[in-house]
Amino acid sequence: MNPIERNRDSANRRHLHPVGVAVMILVGLAGAQASTPTIRPALQAEHAAPAVKRVRRHHHWYQIGIASWYGKFFQGKETASGEPYNMNAMTCAHRTLPLGSLVRVTNLRNDKSVVVRVNDRGPLPENRVIDLSYAAAGFLGLRHSGTAPVRIELIKTNAQLAQLSYPLTPAR
């Protein structure tokens, strides 16, 4: 074999090699698909990927505004919930929250907070968002000033839970 023919043979082999590799890959893939075991529907659940547990994000309701308090003048008068107002109880009046809801009220001036139960409607002044009982106002440190900026966060709207936490009739 002369040297010129040898160069042509090696050139032809170089061009055939990539084609051969491509054919082998295709045959290998076809064989792999044919050899995968089929799973009966009854056993599919065992081999299925584990279910992804979705985490629900809870969006907490809150409101920021001015709070005030009411006390002695309303003592013993009927509230919107039907119970008599008790200025020494941890209660409040709000325009829209369901009666019996539990809310956390935080004084934004001193960062003190208290949990109160909504048992009345109000406040009457339009620039206020909540009226607190005398006791709740004392815990927040706004008895002297009368009003303060607050953040209201809804904790529970379940009226039955609120009833268990703050019974309308005192325990005997």
Structure description:
The protein has 172 residues and is of the alpha/beta class. It folds into two domains: 3-47; 62-165, Barwin-like endoglucanases (Beta Barrel), CATH 2.40.40. The chain has helices at residues 3-34, 41-47, 134-140, 159-165; strands at residues 62-70, 91-93, 102-107, 113-120, 128-133, 147-156. It has a six-stranded mixed β-barrel. It is rod-shaped. The model is unreliable at 162-172 (pLDDT under 50). Keywords: Cell wall biogenesis/degradation, Lipoprotein, Lyase. This is Probable endolytic peptidoglycan transglycosylase RlpA.
Short description, anyone?
By secondary structure, the chain is an alpha/beta fold. The chain has helices at 3-34, 41-47, 134-140, 159-165; strands at residues 62-70, 91-93, 102-107, 113-120, 128-133, 147-156.
Descriptive tags:
alpha/beta, 6-stranded mixed β-barrel, 2 domains, rod-shaped, 4 helices, 172 residues, Barwin-like endoglucanases, disordered C terminus
- Kindly estimate the percentage of residues that lie in beta strands according to DSSP: 15-25%
Q: Tell me the number of helical segments per DSSP (H or I, 4 or more residues long).
A: 4
Q: How many domains make up the coordinates?
A: 2
| Main beta-sheet strand count, sense and barrel state | 6 strands, mixed, barrel
N→C terminal distance: 118 Å
Give the oligomeric state of the chains in this entry, treating copies of one chain as homo and distinct chains as hetero: single chain
Arrangement of strands in the largest sheet: 1-5-2-4-3-6
Structural category: alpha/beta
Low-confidence segments: 162-172
* General shape: rod-shaped
Q: According to CATH, what is the class of the largest domain?
A: Mainly Beta
Q: Residue-averaged pLDDT, rounded?
A: 76
Q: What is the tally of beta strands?
A: 6
Radius of gyration: 37 Å
